[in-house]
UniProtKB/TrEMBL annotation, chains A, B:
Gene Ontology, cellular component aspect: membrane
Organism taxonomic ancestry: Bacteria, Pseudomonadati, Pseudomonadota, Betaproteobacteria, Nitrosomonadales
Listed name of the protein: MtN3 and saliva related transmembrane protein
The organism of origin for this protein: Nitrosomonas communis
Keywords associated with the record: Membrane, Transmembrane, Transmembrane helix
Gene Ontology MF terms: sugar transmembrane transporter activity
Gene3D superfamilies per UniProt: 1.20.1280.290
Chief localisation class: membrane
Length: 89, 89
């Protein structure tokens, strides 16, 4: 039972970043996105990735690799937007 | 070593939601926030909470309880904003 619950949880908290990455990409509206959040979260997911490697768990590595790519995408767009605003003044 | 890496990962991916919840609360700017993301993510964290209960892990319960509260806050503000827009037409 707990394994199933764990897989559902991992799927939802990983897949959740797909609509955000798509929404940010499509609308380029990142004003409501917190830069500190995505910075901390992306680094944190990087640590989960390293954790998965250390314990030799493919599901942990796989889920966090996807989350890492998606949250890095949002983070990259947010940084790009901040740079654009700063240098267009 | 892996335990330390896991705790750092858990701390970062949990604490990351504090600046987002604070930013959303302070600015009420949630236009860039994806409703499907926060809906899926909050439900997913709920499953992690249940998973922590099933395996009897206090750190998993504690970290996900905080994340659940913070992501629910952002989700609630986003829903509130959508309702306000819909009924103010």
């Amino acid at each position: 039972m707990s394994i199933t619950v764990g897989y559902i949880a991992a799927f939802l908290t990983t897949a959740a970043f797909v609509p955000q990455a798509w929404y940010s990409w499509r609308t380029r509206d990142l004003s409501g996105i917190s830069l500190p959040m995505y910075t901390m979260f992306t680094i944190g997911v990087g640590f989960w990735l390293f954790y998965g490697y250390l314990i030799g768990s493919v599901p942990v590595i796989f889920a966090n690799l996807i989350t890492f790519l998606l949250s890095s995408m949002v983070l990259g767009m947010k940084i790009q937007q901040i740079m654009a605003l700063r240098f267009n003044r």
